[in-house]
Amino acid sequence: MTARIIDGKAIAAELRARVAAEVIRVKQDHALTPGLAVVLVGNDPASEVYVRSKHTQTQAAGMASFEHKLPADVSQADLLALIARLNRDPLVHGILVQLPLPKSLHTETIIHAIDPAKDVDGLHPHNAGRLAGGLAALSPCTPLGCIILTKSVHPSLEGMNAIVIGRSNLVGRPLVQLLLNENATVTIAHSRSRDLAKLCAQADLVYAAVGKPEMVRGDWLKPGATVIDVGINRIPVEGGKPKLVGDVAFQEAVKVAGAITPVPGGVGQMTVACLLVNTLRAACAIHG
Ligand code: GUN
């Protein structure tokens, strides 16, 4: 058996097209142009690539995109002043501070300074708490993308056994809450969990978000399971370009799983598409 490959690229393109159509409607009916401000501190090459992609896709969806590039040695006070300005700016409905920040800045303080109504990353404790309480909230984009990809295979997740490997604030923890909201039964695993293979063997849905290349092996999986690989790991190749691999050993897993996301071409593109969804939602909610 070979797993069905979940085409994240196509599903993300479809979602972006739906957002673009809705943006046309809110512009016409409400004279509202959703606006996203992205703040990049320093010049980490991977972050620069992500921010450029966010900028291009925001504009392609018909939204306003505001880029703020700050030097790596910006003071915490100056960054907080920028966030305060963006909080007040009526043209800005979503604010995203690209992570990771340089070590000299206190990430928690910065995230907490963002107006929760504009927190399109869903990282402010107001939104994280609402999500944990089962209330409507702006939710982190990558976990939202994981749920959409899963639902392309299983429209209802009710009663399914899911395992989330990884407990980061950006992916693992919010993903657990979103799965609970879908009435899945969720096991939360992480780097200190014992016998991950045994835990995975029970799971209809496997989410790998640990940042360890090819850690989840094919023989851990329940035959027919749906596997969503959040990992993006760059492996050096002698004399060539680095190879991108996920947290799942794809060539093994594809022989056992029922459906699986590739890396690249799986979860990656969904993150920005869901950021556009969140920006549109935030704009409509702020506008009333
Ligand atoms: N760095 C990598 N992924 C993300 C993300 O989803 N949001 C932010 N703010 N930074 C990131």
Automatic annotation (TrEMBL):
GO biological process: L-histidine biosynthetic process; methionine biosynthetic process; purine nucleotide biosynthetic process; tetrahydrofolate interconversion
Superkingdom: Bacteria
Cited Gene3D superfamilies: Leucine Dehydrogenase, chain A, domain 1, NAD(P)-binding Rossmann-like Domain
Tetrahydrofolate dehydrogenase/cyclohydrolase NAD(P)-binding domain segment(s): 140-284
Catalyses which reaction(s): (6R)-5,10-methylene-5,6,7,8-tetrahydrofolate + NADP(+) = (6R)-5,10-methenyltetrahydrofolate + NADPH; (6R)-5,10-methenyltetrahydrofolate + H2O = (6R)-10-formyltetrahydrofolate + H(+)
Keyword Oxidoreductase listed: yes
InterPro entries: Aminoacid_DH-like_N_sf, NAD(P)-bd_dom_sf, THF_DH/CycHdrlase, THF_DH/CycHdrlase_cat_dom, THF_DH/CycHdrlase_CS, THF_DH/CycHdrlase_NAD-bd_dom
Molecular-function GO term, any one: methylenetetrahydrofolate dehydrogenase (NADP+) activity
Residues noted as binding NADP(+) in the record, renumbered to the chain: G166, R167, S168, I232
Keyword presence, Hydrolase: yes
EC number per UniProt: 1.5.1.5, 3.5.4.9
Function: Catalyzes the oxidation of 5,10-methylenetetrahydrofolate to 5,10-methenyltetrahydrofolate and then the hydrolysis of 5,10-methenyltetrahydrofolate to 10-formyltetrahydrofolate.
Subunit structure: Homodimer.
Family indicated by similarity: Belongs to the tetrahydrofolate dehydrogenase/cyclohydrolase family.
HAMAP family: THF_DHG_CYH (MF_01576)
Protein name (Swiss-Prot/TrEMBL): Bifunctional protein FolD
Gene: folD_1
